Amino acid sequence: MQATEDLIRSVVRQVLTEMSSPVKNGRGHRGRFGIFDNVDDAVSAATTAFEELSERTMEDRKRIIDHIRRISIDQCVELGTMEMEETKIGRLPHKIEKLKTLGERTPGVEFMRSEVFSGDHGLAVIEHAPFGVIGAITPVTHSLPTITGNAVSMIAGGNTLVVNPHPSGKRVAVEGVRRFNEAIYRDLGIDNLICVLAEPTLETADALFNHRGIKLICVTGGPAVARAAMKSSKRAIVAGPGNPPVVIDETADLDRAARSIIKGASYDNNLLCIAEKEVFVVDEVFDAMLAAMDRAGAARLNAREVEALTKAAMVSTGEGEHKHFVPCKDLLGKDAAVLAKAAGRSVSADVELLFGETDEHNPFVPVEQMMPFVPFVRVRDVDEAIAKAKFYEHGYRHTAIIHSNNVRNMTKMGRALDTTLFVKNGPCMASLGLGGEGYLSFSIATPTGEGVTTPLTFTRERRCSLIDDLRILGK
Ligand code: NAD
Q1: How many angstroms does the Cα of residue 154 sit away from the middle of ligand 1?
Q2: With a 6 A CB cut-off, is 169 part of the ligand 1 pocket?
Q3: What is the pTM of this model?
Q4: What is the pLDDT of residues 389-414, one digit of tens each?
């Protein structure tokens, strides 16, 4: 009896010592709760965590994930507010809702499965094994939500991860990761399943891309990081940029289209990569469509106001043939009322979206603006609308949307744009199971083709064959 109590006391002492004075390698990273200031230490800790996770059951993986889900849901107000205060882009209710939604709906262990081939020569079982430590790069538009979603799916697949967050969302990333790891450690005794670099830079991202201990990369971000990941020598899952076009033909339910565009394009002030960014409407219903937007509560800017907003919101960068517009940082992700002010107009704080007629050459059409102003372009017919939608989607093959009741037009557009997500008659988020069917992820792998990521995206196939036996069905 005395010996047992002594043993318990000594284990507790050891755990407390490890937590208060973390040392540099192996199991000594316990008590860091995933927070690191250099890539080597983070990868070493995540490797140890991976080895420990590999010894655990599927039930344990689920229990680990339940902690991440619980914290994302129960603490969404506090963490969402922290994200809003740090990043200063988007809208507070949506920051909160995103954490809750990802906690509730990210695919977890229930997505894991095996396949079997059973035949004359026995059995072959295909199982989905983890890669190991995954290097994840996350965007400022959804810093902690992306980490939450990545962590749930990657751990469900048996992996651990090291995150290089966007520098402008690093504090909330660190705080969320600390809370996840602490809860998991206290319940299951494994620390550092999710590691985060507290001072992320392009150099730490590069070091992660090239680290021998990193077995797979998953980046969620814009064109520069997508290109960098595709050039890396590691296998990369790339959730890249988009510029989702909307087509409206003469058969569309215009009021439904207007409500959908407002819901999708205004969500978190248009920060979603899937959000409606520019709209092509056939001439026959163009004026009626703008009237439907008025009725649905968006604020219409006139030509002079659109011009003023464009001057304030778009800045030119690059030289010669590389010259192009980018969104101005001061207005990116800001409220419609703030954009309206820049346009010389006053709208009430509860207006969610601005819109106005432009031609296709207005920078709001080609640029992924991430602002709650949507340009409406008048086109001759649906063929011209689809052609322009394809052109301004830039071949990202990310997301496209049509409002139509003509199945032929839907089919034509689906074929022409060849996007990962193609939404008909709903807001963009319906394609992620939010008001539509299917499941959710905030890392939608576009150029590399994995689509809406799930735990299986982060696994390797392994085949186990038994020759000539265990086919129990007879000859
Ligand atoms: P961003 O490209 O500026 O940054 C994304 C991440 O990449 C950050 O962590 C950043 O520090 C890092 N980064 C940037 N350049 C890099 C480089 N050369 N090497 C290594 N790391 C680099 O994007 P953002 O503003 O944070 O996020 C918005 C972008 O992300 C939009 O283009 C949006 O479409 C895209 N996005 C895509 C998805 C998707 O699922 N496909 C989801 C969310 C956001």
Answers
A1: 19
A2: no
A3: 0.93
A4: 999 999 999 999 999 999 999 999 99
